[in-house]
Specification:
89 residues; elongated; mainly alpha
Length: 89
């Protein structure tokens, strides 16, 4: 019976975190930080990097290019190294 309570608690926590993440994404879209779904570009990724929002840039990169987390993170890190985006000169 205790295992059931633990499973229910984990599921509720996961659903809550998912709802918060979705709301945050919707808020970012309404404020103009993120483009509408399916309309993002690499320029949007660069803009997010320049604003210091690397996590959002990684999420958008994954959405645009349909890649895994590691590939997207490596790509965004490489973008962040550009001198015009605050990288080393």
């Amino acid at each position: 019976m205790m295992v059931l309570y633990i499973v229910v608690a984990v599921v509720v926590a996961a659903l809550t975190l998912n709802a918060l993440s979705r709301r945050r994404t919707d808020d970012l879209r309404q404020t103009g930080f993120l483009p509408p779904p399916g309309q993002g570009s690499d320029a949007d990724v660069e803009r997010l990097v320049a604003l210091g929002r690397k996590i959002d840039a990684i999420k958008l990169y994954r959405d645009i290019h349909r890649t895994g987390l590691k590939t997207a993170k490596d790509a965004v890190d490489k973008i962040a190294e550009k001198p015009d985006l605050g990288g080393p000169r």
